[in-house]
Specification:
The chain has helices at residues 2-10, 13-29, 33-49, 53-70, 76-92, 98-116, 121-133, 137-155, 160-176, 179-197, 202-217, 221-238, 244-261. With 267 residues, the chain is an all-alpha fold. Helix 2 runs antiparallel to helix 3, helix 7 runs antiparallel to helix 8 (137-155) and helix 11 (202-217) runs antiparallel to helix 12. The longest helix has 19 residues, at 98-116.
Length: 267
Amino acid sequence: MIGTVYHGVAQNMSKAQEFHELALDLSRRYNSTNEIALSLHLLGIIHRYQRNMDTARRYHEDAVELGRKIFSPKNNGRLAAFLLNLAVVYNRLGQLAVEEARLVYQETLKLTRKQYGSRDGRVLNTLSTNYYALGKYDESIEALLEALSIHEETHGDYHPNVAETLYFLGFTYRVKGELQNSIQMLTKSLKIRQQYYGDQHYQVAEVLHDISNTQRELSLLDDALQNAERCVEILRDKLTENSAGVAVSLNGLGHIYLALGDPNVDR
């Protein structure tokens, strides 16, 4: 799909969205169910990165519903990918979809184990997100560290799967309050993503946002400000200006300026 090229290489989200919406319209016109499911799935991912979670939820739910009807047992991996992205959205919705996230994570884990085996890095990443959704952060970190070892052994040190696992580790350490560990993992993830995707990639912005938040919690406000400004710059370039993702990054930037103006402000 042309939209996937923009999503994965050029990183122009609005252009990717335009092409995937066109693909969805054409696929529906010619009743191409596989392409309909894929377009729905990809549009869900785009809206998730734009932080339009309610819209992302609708697309992912429609993709999963169709995927259950058209994918054979041999395509467990594809259905699992659809389910995992839906579970991520449920997780981002927080208390609004806690039970939905738990159930979908469990189904995803079952399918990925059946498709890839219990000790596959993708299975362990899914297991970790399931633990995270349940608030079992120690178990989540244990699964992620094992997944990291497998990904590094399989792919080498510089690979998107390694970067993603490091990012999840950094995010989870931060939730646990282990801020130095969080910074360490996020910094490693950032370095890999910059090398793999380039400095202007939205996934680079994603890591910069979390590094900035962690630095703010550590009262490293000058460093936090620098990373937050870089994040906003990238997202404004890659997402539409009225995207919720841009709004989230601007709120983070504003919070840092507030803290810089008043050292006693609640961070």
